[in-house]
Amino acid sequence: MKTLMKNGRALVSLSVGLVVAVTATPGQISPPPLRWIDAGTELVLQSEISFENSSGRLGILNAAGPIETKGHAFFQPLGINGRACVTCHQPANAMSLSVDAIRERWRATKGKDPLFAAIDGSDNPSAPQERESSHSLLLNRGLFRVGLPWPPVQNPTPEISVEIVRDPTGVNRDPAWGLKSAKPTISVFRRPRPAANLKYVLAPDNGVFNVKLGVLLDRDPVTGKPVSMNMMADARAATLAIQAESAYRDHQEGKGQLRPEHLNQIIAFESQVYAAQIFDISAKDLIEANGPGALGPMNLFREMAGVLNSPAKPVFLSFDRWKSDTEFRQSVARGNDIFLNRTFWVRDVAHINSIGLGNPAKRSCAVCHNAVMSGMDRAPGWVDLGTTNFPTWTEPKTWNEAGDLPVFKLTCRSEAKPHPFLGRVIYTSDPGRALITGKCADIGAITMGQFRGLAARAPYFSNGSAKNLIELVDYYDRRFDMRLTTQEKEDLVNFLRVL
Amino acid sequence: MKRLTHVFAVAILGVAPVYAQNLSFVTCPVVRDTKTVPCWLAEYNGEIYYLGNQGGVAQDFYPPQLNHEVLVEGTIAEGPRVCGGVPLRPVKTSVFLEINRACYTILPIEDGIEAPERAPGRGPVSWVRSDGPSDVTLYFDFDNDFLSLHTTTAVQRIAEQFQQTKASAIEVRAFRGSLRLSNGKEMVEQPGIAGSRAARIREIIEGLGVPKASVSVILVSDVQPPNGIDDPWSRKVTLSVKK
Question: Which of A178, A384, B172, B175 could form a disulfide with A350 if both were Cys (CB 3.0 to 4.6 A apart)?
Answer without folding.
Answer: A384
